[in-house]
Amino acid sequence: MIKTVINPWTWQEELAYVQAVEVTGTKGTLYCSGQAAVHADGTPSNADMRTQLCLAIQNLEAVIGEAGYKCRDIVKLTVYTTSSDEFIKNCFDIFREFVAKHEMRQAVTLMQVVALNQTLNIELDAIAVR
After folding, report:
1. Domain extent for 54
2. Which pLDDT tens digits describe the chain residue by residue (130 residues)?
3. In CATH, what number is assigned to the domain containing residue 75?
4. How far apart are the two ends of the chain, measured CA to CA in Å?
5. DSSP string for the chain
6. How far apart, in whole angstroms, are the C-alpha atoms of residue 75 and residue 6?
7. Separation of alpha carbons 104 and 128, rounded Å
8. Per its UniProt record, what Gene3D superfamilies does this chain match (predicted)?
């Protein structure tokens, strides 16, 4: 697989994403359902957004790993949140650490939604390619 990052500017580097990713010569593509702060027994977390983001990341890492992919294979990540302001102010450091830990270079969309399932306030939707 050849992954080419397209960045006409440099400002997005501080925000832990790229403008576009072209992928050629792939062996597979993994479309992940949105991963949220749901415990192994299926119960949703009612914790604060920071805690929920950590659990959502762990769940995304588990799904990607189970499929035989690596998080660095993520080319598109959509973050759904009930408060983009809270995500940026209180959770962005966790997001940055996640991206840096896996040496990810992915396109990102942050989307504020009215609500998520039950008590959830963050969900990660990813596409990975290898």
Report:
1. 2-129
2. 898 999 999 998 888 889 999 999 999 999 999 999 999 999 999 999 999 999 999 999 999 999 999 999 999 999 999 999 999 999 999 999 999 999 999 999 999 999 999 999 999 999 999 9
3. 3.30.1330.40
4. 6
5. -EEEEE-S-SGGGGGT-BSEEEEES-S-EEEPPPEESB-TTSPBP-S-HHHHHHHHHHHHHHHHHHTT--GGGEEEEEEEES-HHHIIIIIHHHHHHHHHHTT---EEEEEE-S--STT--EEEEEEEE-
6. 12
7. 11
8. RutC-like
